[in-house]
Automatic annotation (TrEMBL):
Domain of life: Bacteria
GO function terms (MF aspect): metal ion binding; nucleic acid binding; RNA-DNA hybrid ribonuclease activity
Name this polypeptide is given: Ribonuclease H
Keywords annotated in UniProt: Endonuclease, Hydrolase, Magnesium, Metal-binding, Nuclease
Pfam family membership, one: Cauli_VI
Lineage, opening ranks: Bacteria, Bacillati, Bacillota, Clostridia, Lachnospirales
Function: Endonuclease that specifically degrades the RNA of RNA-DNA hybrids.
Catalytic activity: Endonucleolytic cleavage to 5'-phosphomonoester
Amino acid sequence: MAKFFYAVRVGKNPGIYETWGQCEAQVKGYKGAKYKKFKSYEEALDFLKGEQASQCTDEGHLAKIEELKDNEIIAYVDGSYSLESGTYSYGVVLLTKNKKDTFSGRDNNKNLAEMRNVSGELKGAMVAMEKSLELNKDTLYLHYDYAGIEEWATGAWKTNKEGTKEYKRFYDSIRNKLKVVFIKVKAHSGIKYNEEADKLAKEAILQ
């Protein structure tokens, strides 16, 4: 029997579901629901990442290094997942006026790994926030390509899994210390540092 993945971009709880029943529960009766069936998880994830009204598709919408103040920092984050090993990974690029730092890593927490790539995306965002605070910055321009990075943090999406609950708890614990400006970018669109974060995540999953 063929296995499908159902991506809910707009619904009660946006995300990726493995049965039509689970998907239907999120979109039935929801005005303006957007969802689609895919043969692979990766295609479903691309559907969730793409076509966001707020996403940036060119360099003109991005935070600019030369315009940063001393208290500000820029980050690009991305995540990856290995079906073979059941591990997820993250990549982070941090930029200040005078320096670029990169961070990456992988993990196999079973409670988080069920969200696949998304686990890496969330971990990358948390690392970016942690490092920003360690550098005594109070404003972070966080560039991301998966909508949940912003939507779960701000409460626009309901946190119904342990991984998303943990992410929301973390964000709530630092929000009074660090102002996070969320900037949505289009995945795989040639944006330099977003591509670098993606590469870091993919390299980390192989380690």
